[in-house]
Amino acid sequence: MSARAAPAATPWRGAGWALAAVLAGQLLLHLPLLTEHPTGSHTWRMADTAAMARHFNEDGRPLFGLRIDWDRGESGHLQTEFPLYTWAVGYLWALTGPRFRAAELLSLGFMLLAYFCFYRFGRLVVGERVAVLATLVLASMPLVFYFSASLQPESLLLLFSYAALWAWTSYLHRPRPGPLAACAVAFSLALSIKPQTLLLVVPMFLLGRGSGGLPGHSWRGPLLALVGAFVLPLAWFAYSHRIYLRTGNSFGITQSGGADKFYWLPHMSDPAWWARLVTHGSMYSVVLPLLPFFLVGLWRACRESRLRFLAGWLLAVFGSFVILAEAVWVMNYYMLPLPGPAALLVALGIERAWERVGGPARGRGWTRALWAVALVALALGVAGLHRQPRRQRRPRFPHPLPQARSPAPRGALHLAGCRLRPGED
User: Fold this and answer.
1) Which range among 115-119, 338-342, 367-371 shows the weakest confidence by mean pLDDT?
2) Which of 191, 307, 342, 353 has the fewest CB atoms lying closer than 10 Å?
3) Is 401:260 a contact under the CB 8 Å cutoff?
4) Contact in structure between 129 and 361 (CB atoms under 8 Å)
5) Distance in angstroms (rounded) separating the CA atoms of residues 206 and 200
6) Pair 78, 13: CB distance under 8 Å
7) CA distances from 248 to 77, 176, 238 (A)
8) What residues pair up with 274 in beta bridges, in sequence order?
9) In the 3-class helix/strand/coil scheme, how is 353-385 assigned residue by residue?
């Protein structure tokens, strides 16, 4: 049996309708939540992104030399990760004006496309039914739900990440230059937005080396594509670093205290860090009621060769958490690589449980199971919104991260051209 494709199964005629229902449900859930008054623990980050998008328009939309409002309102150039999302928001605001709802709707569009790419990837590796179920679980995870319609680049990051995985599995299924080129482009853009995306090399490699994978002589093309994928991120970070050396301003890369996003020995000996990693991973990604299915799916992934890439993917995710120990402690968006493999493992666990309890996973039984899980997952997703803080607050950490020189949320949002309700800050 090939590791590149899902096991043989009867085609599910309702897969397209089920996926459409998942996407439509997410759209209907998010539309009432779009607002001109951003809330949550990342208000400062949304404000800074909005300020860069506003300056992008005011400066004639140059692709280089983004500016931000720091230092008591003085504007200056800054080092930043590849600002593709900021450019997209800037071009949108050239048509709509600086409106948060428009940017949030753009993010939601990116996320819906990310769900579609995730489904197409899952369809090739676990089959249609499990792929639809995994997409539903992914879309309902509180952490993903929160970033789905937020003025932050995570929706675009997930789009490129899942598009790269889809293109890679398509190439493994039928080696052609088109999917390989698409994989290289998507992976390069994702890596430019967030270097943590480098961990995707692990599941890609395991998929390619699996049973029925690429023979040794066929790796030349993928390796060349991988090398080419590093050109854009390396060139951009070299250019961006020169801006930092000139201005001292950095947004999300170089902190004032040094490279303190990375490995910190105190975290490895601090039980609080490990407890936070487990609790946040289970509460905001896997969600506790689905944890037993996650464990069953992980057991399957360790035993079945065609699913072993999921165990490797999960291990790579936790490895990135250790390397980015301080960042994971402070900012929850560094945990976004976890929902992808977790959703697939949860879906595989549900499939195994349904096979044991309700017989073969086919026919009306699967339809009823999907609807039942849909109701539970959507309820969990909506409930997850209430766990997001409604006002700006910074928790106390045993190893605090030096904060960037950003103004208070009210001042930042005012400079970005946005409005706040009276009394909000």
Assistant:
1) 367-371
2) 353
3) yes
4) yes
5) 10
6) no
7) 9, 45, 15
8) none
9) HHHHHHCCCCHHHHHHHHHHHHHHHHHHHHHHH
pLDDT at 345 over 60: yes
Q: What's the rounded Cα separation, in Å, for the pair 116 and 24?
A: 12
- What tokens does 102 get? 């428009």
Contacts of 402 (CB under 8 A, 6+ apart): 255, 256, 257, 260
Distance CA 341, CA 294 (A): 10
In angstroms, the Cα distances linking 12 to 5, 26, 50, 119, 365 are 16, 22, 43, 14, 13
Question: What are the residues facing 77 on neighbouring strands?
Answer: 67
Name the percent of the chain lying above pLDDT 90.
Answer: 30
**Which residues are registered as beta bridge partners of 208?**
none
Residue (of 200, 135, 226, 206) closest to 337 by Cα position: 200
Contacts of residue 135, defined as CB under 8 A and 6 or more positions apart, other chains included, come to: 19, 22, 115, 118, 119, 122, 343
Taking CA atoms, 321 is separated from 84, 199, 268, 359, in Å, by: 25, 11, 11, 39
d(CA 351, CA 67): 50
Question: Which pLDDT band holds residue 396 (cuts at 50, 70, 90)?
Answer: very low
Between strands 79-80 and 250-251, the pairing is parallel
Among 125, 132, 133, which residue's Cα sits nearest to residue 206?
125
Helices (H) and strands (E) counted in the chain, each on its own, are: 19, 4
Q: What is the CA angle 152-36-403, rounded to 5?
A: 45
The pLDDT assigned to 417 comes to 46
Cα distance between residue 68 and residue 48, in whole Å: 7
Using an 8 Å Cβ cutoff, are 123 and 134 in contact?
no
What is the Cα gyration radius of the chain?
A: 22
Rounded to the nearest 5°, which phi and psi values hold at 391?
-130, 160
Q: Report whether 273 contacts 267 (CB < 8 A).
A: yes
Residues paired with 16 in a beta bridge: none
120 Cβ neighbours under 8 A, 6+ residues apart: 131, 166
Full-model pTM: 0.82
Beta bridge partners of 68: 76
| pLDDT in the model for residue 293 | 87
Sign of the four-CA dihedral 54, 55, 57, 63: negative
pLDDT band at 7 (very low <50, low <70, confident <90, very high): very low
